Amino acid sequence: MGSMVYYGFRLSLRPRLNLRMVRALCSIEPGGSRLQILEQVDKELASGNDVAALSLARDLQGKPGGLRCFGAARQIPQRLYTLDELKLNNIDTLSLLSPVDATLGSIERNLQVAAVLAGISAWVAFGLTQQQILLLSLGLLFLWSLDLVSCI
Asked: pLDDT digits over 52-66, tens only?
């Protein structure tokens, strides 16, 4: 009755069921709906009144029509993992660190090389003595160390 033969193949002609999803309201629980309560809590949180939102949620906890399981779960304390545990779980620890900026280091090295070359060229151009070069380099190193101390 519900099938036909077509070139030796049997095809089933079953009608498809068209089911629609229907939302049902639970009329067993008296009082306001949970959605309205959650909207009230959300309004309190949006206005920045966290204490009122928390007290509203705690007052309605476990009451009919209220928030049934709010705060009922046990809280798990935060755990700090050691470096060995992270390596054991194959977690790349370098991705957890802040990125390294090598730009300033390379600029500082280039400035040091330029300063040395400028010192050599000044020695040749001005005919400075070894004592003058020593005093000039010590003065520049002092100023450079002040700059490094002020950055820290």
From this structure: 888 888 888 777 777
